[in-house]
């Protein structure tokens, strides 16, 4: 394919997304602060850029997949940031889980460069990213989405156009708020099960088969039971998402009290040294009490 694509950020999600773009035949340039993470992708045919601006040069579509507002801002607008090299007519896609306020600002900056903008965060974790089974929640114009559709399809099982710019970011925070609360309550419930003398495997089977059951409960409960916390979704990033969710809800005059409780458990786990592990590790400080 002739279109040049740039992907900025090769973390838990970005590496899998980049791999699927290559499999689909796109000419891909990648940038990551730690260049070593790009080696498998370079071996598969990607070009490695030394700066975000170099990655964005002449790219038709530029995709960001960063940790938070600060990382996204640095890659797009910092020294040798991608916006310095964006050409008129390009499409910028911010797939990071970031605040709607930053999305709105980035959209304005893109417009000043003559570029279109989509906020397109994803649902799914490492496995879905690697398998091209993500769901994109998209905010922005239908025209820009139509142009970007082949690239998004290469990485996803579903693309949902939520509405104007900012809609995807808002929906993602609502999604992650509910996931975070469920993971935190599951940690408390499982510790309760363990201390009550019930068989944890049988108890979790009952939960999975009953009303509480969900894909998240099944996946996270399994990790908690096995004490295996290889990263599917970083605990520190879920904590960040809960904070962004609370801030956005407050702008709608809503206090997320359950988010406050869940976030306190995640922050306790970070303090205990689990920030760089999977969010399922939120259970460990509860077990230690």
Molecular structure report:
- The chain is 52% helix and 14% strand.
- It is an alpha/beta fold.
- The strands form 2 sheets. It has a 6-stranded parallel beta sheet, sandwiched between helices. Strands 7-8-9 form a 3-stranded mixed beta sheet.
- Helix 7 links the parallel strand 8 and strand 9 (156-163).
Distance between the termini: 56 Å
Radius of gyration: 20 Å
Largest sheet: 6 strands, parallel
Number of helices: 13
Structural class comes to: alpha/beta
Spatial arrangement of strands, main beta sheet = 3-2-1-4-5-6
* Average residue-wise pLDDT: 97
- The number of distinct structural domains comes to 2
The gross shape turns out to be globular
Going by CATH, what is the homologous superfamily of the largest domain? NAD(P)-binding Rossmann-like Domain
| DSSP strand content | 5-15%
Fold blueprint:
Layout: E1 4-8, H1 14-23, E2 27-31, H2 39-43, E3 47-48, H3 52-56, E4 61-64, H4 69-77, E5 91-94, H5 100-112, E6 116-119, E7 122-123, H6 126-131, E8 134-139, H7 142-153, E9 156-163, H8 167-196, H9 200-209, H10 215-226, H11 235-251, H12 257-271, H13 284-288
Parallel strand pairs: 1-2, 1-4, 2-3, 4-5, 5-6, 8-9
Antiparallel strand pairs: 7-8
Short description:
The protein is 52% helix and 14% strand. The chain is of the alpha/beta class. It has two domains: 4-164, 3-Layer(aba) Sandwich (Rossmann fold); 170-288, Orthogonal Bundle (N-(1-d-carboxylethyl)-l-norvaline Dehydrogenase, domain 2).
Which tags fit this structure?
289 residues, alpha/beta, Rossmann fold, N-(1-d-carboxylethyl)-l-norvaline Dehydrogenase, domain 2, 2 domains, 3-stranded mixed β-sheet, 9 strands, 52% helix, globular
